[in-house]
Predict the 3D structure of the following.
Amino acid sequence: MSEAHHEKPFENYVVEKLVGQGWLLGDTSGYDKDFALYPEDLLGWVKDTQSAKWDIRYTAAPPILAVRQCWCRVCQYLACGSGSTSEQALSAPR
Protein backbone atom coordinates (compact mmCIF):
# COMPACT_ATOMS: atom_id res chain seq x y z
CA MET A 1 0.00 0.00 0.00
CA SER A 2 1.34 3.42 -0.83
CA GLU A 3 2.26 5.96 1.86
CA ALA A 4 -0.69 8.10 0.70
CA HIS A 5 -3.07 5.54 2.19
CA HIS A 6 -1.57 5.50 5.67
CA GLU A 7 -3.18 7.38 8.54
CA LYS A 8 -0.11 9.44 9.53
CA PRO A 9 0.00 11.55 6.33
CA PHE A 10 -3.71 12.26 6.71
CA GLU A 11 -3.23 13.20 10.36
CA ASN A 12 -0.35 15.51 9.44
CA TYR A 13 -2.48 17.13 6.73
CA VAL A 14 -5.37 17.78 9.15
CA VAL A 15 -3.02 19.21 11.79
CA GLU A 16 -1.33 21.44 9.19
CA LYS A 17 -4.70 22.82 8.04
CA LEU A 18 -5.94 23.43 11.59
CA VAL A 19 -2.74 25.20 12.63
CA GLY A 20 -2.96 27.26 9.44
CA GLN A 21 -6.38 28.46 10.57
CA GLY A 22 -5.21 29.55 14.01
CA TRP A 23 -5.51 26.38 16.10
CA LEU A 24 -2.70 25.80 18.57
CA LEU A 25 -0.45 22.79 18.21
CA GLY A 26 -0.35 21.11 21.60
CA ASP A 27 1.85 18.68 23.45
CA THR A 28 0.21 15.28 23.80
CA SER A 29 2.02 14.43 27.04
CA GLY A 30 -0.76 16.02 29.13
CA TYR A 31 -3.58 14.23 27.30
CA ASP A 32 -5.82 12.02 29.43
CA LYS A 33 -6.67 8.98 27.30
CA ASP A 34 -9.28 7.66 29.71
CA PHE A 35 -11.43 10.78 29.35
CA ALA A 36 -10.19 11.88 25.91
CA LEU A 37 -9.31 15.42 26.92
CA TYR A 38 -6.59 17.69 28.23
CA PRO A 39 -7.15 18.40 31.95
CA GLU A 40 -5.50 21.82 31.59
CA ASP A 41 -7.96 22.80 28.86
CA LEU A 42 -10.89 21.51 30.87
CA LEU A 43 -9.88 23.46 33.97
CA GLY A 44 -9.38 26.59 31.89
CA TRP A 45 -12.86 26.14 30.45
CA VAL A 46 -14.39 25.68 33.92
CA LYS A 47 -12.64 28.79 35.21
CA ASP A 48 -13.71 30.83 32.16
CA THR A 49 -17.33 29.70 32.05
CA GLN A 50 -18.05 29.32 35.77
CA SER A 51 -15.66 31.73 37.42
CA ALA A 52 -17.98 32.66 40.28
CA LYS A 53 -18.41 29.02 41.32
CA TRP A 54 -14.68 28.39 40.87
CA ASP A 55 -13.89 31.37 43.10
CA ILE A 56 -16.31 30.23 45.81
CA ARG A 57 -15.41 26.55 45.77
CA TYR A 58 -11.74 26.36 44.88
CA THR A 59 -9.80 29.56 45.61
CA ALA A 60 -9.55 28.85 49.33
CA ALA A 61 -7.62 25.65 48.63
CA PRO A 62 -3.97 25.57 47.58
CA PRO A 63 -3.85 25.70 43.74
CA ILE A 64 -2.73 22.09 43.27
CA LEU A 65 -5.48 20.85 45.57
CA ALA A 66 -8.10 23.01 43.86
CA VAL A 67 -7.15 21.59 40.48
CA ARG A 68 -7.20 18.04 41.83
CA GLN A 69 -10.62 18.53 43.47
CA CYS A 70 -12.13 19.99 40.32
CA TRP A 71 -10.60 17.29 38.12
CA CYS A 72 -11.94 14.54 40.42
CA ARG A 73 -15.43 16.04 40.28
CA VAL A 74 -15.36 16.18 36.50
CA CYS A 75 -14.02 12.61 36.28
CA GLN A 76 -16.83 11.41 38.55
CA TYR A 77 -19.35 13.23 36.39
CA LEU A 78 -17.97 11.74 33.17
CA ALA A 79 -17.65 8.23 34.62
CA CYS A 80 -21.23 8.08 35.85
CA GLY A 81 -22.73 9.27 32.55
CA SER A 82 -24.82 11.75 34.49
CA GLY A 83 -27.54 13.60 32.69
CA SER A 84 -26.88 16.71 34.78
CA THR A 85 -25.30 19.79 33.29
CA SER A 86 -21.70 20.84 33.82
CA GLU A 87 -23.02 23.64 36.04
CA GLN A 88 -24.77 21.10 38.25
CA ALA A 89 -21.70 18.87 38.34
CA LEU A 90 -19.47 21.72 39.49
CA SER A 91 -22.03 22.75 42.12
CA ALA A 92 -22.74 19.27 43.45
CA PRO A 93 -22.10 18.69 47.14
CA ARG A 94 -18.65 17.45 48.08
